[in-house]
Amino acid sequence: MNLSFLPNLITLIRVILLVPLSIFLLREEYTVALIIFVIAGFSDALDGYLAKHFSWTSRFGAILDPLADKALLVITMAILTYNQKLSWALLITVLIRDIYIVAGAYYYHYRLGPYEMHPSYLSKFNTFVQLLLVSCLLVNYGYNPLPDWFVNGLIILTYLTTISSGIHYGWVWGNKFKAELNARDQQAASIDSESDHPPAS
Questions:
Q1: According to the 3-state scheme, what is the secondary structure of the chain?
Q2: Could you report the per-residue pLDDT of 89-116, keeping only the tens digit for each?
């Protein structure tokens, strides 16, 4: 029996979990929201393990999985902001970074064609910090209060990693874009030069 569909099925379940998660967050029932958030996080680890361990990868999954992860984070942070548990400044900072990266990726694809983008270690750390912040806020309001210094420290760290990872993406992929563009211009110039000076017969 071919079970290669399992990672995508688990990812779809994670997307569906966004509905009850949003409902309980809006109701400020953080204990239940925390349980759903943990289940969603576990599903992300599980589908990633299955996809890599059994090579059950697909183009659909490669697109859907990061979108589901980003939706989980952004929706949770947005509702926590709406509930006045996070500042609008932090949410806007996170959204600007994401929009900046997506817009840059689209422009790169538009000018140079398909490419493989792999998240940097700094970007992965930023995602980890954002997940840790959201998890700790849900624990703080739904299970057991955490020290203010700890939560405030996570918020500051989220600002720092969000901004620095956005700048890092722009620097790395901006240099790649320029290098690829220059290489194509040189190649085109070389072809034009050869066409203007055909080899002697």
A1: CCCCCHHHHHHHHHHHHHHHHHHHHHCCCHHHHHHHHHHHHHHHHHHHHHHHHCCCCCHHHHHHHHHHHHHHHHHHHHHHHHCCCCCHHHHHHHHHHHHHHHHHHHHHHHHHCCCCCCCCHHHHHHHHHHHHHHHHHHHHHHCCCCCHHHHHHHHHHHHHHHHHHHHHHHHHHHHHHHHHHHHHHHHHHHHHHHHHCCCCC
A2: 999 999 999 999 888 888 877 777 776 6
User: Same domain for 20 and 45?
Assistant: yes
Same domain for 37 and 125, yes or no, is: no
Instruction: Name the pTM for this structure.
Output: 0.83
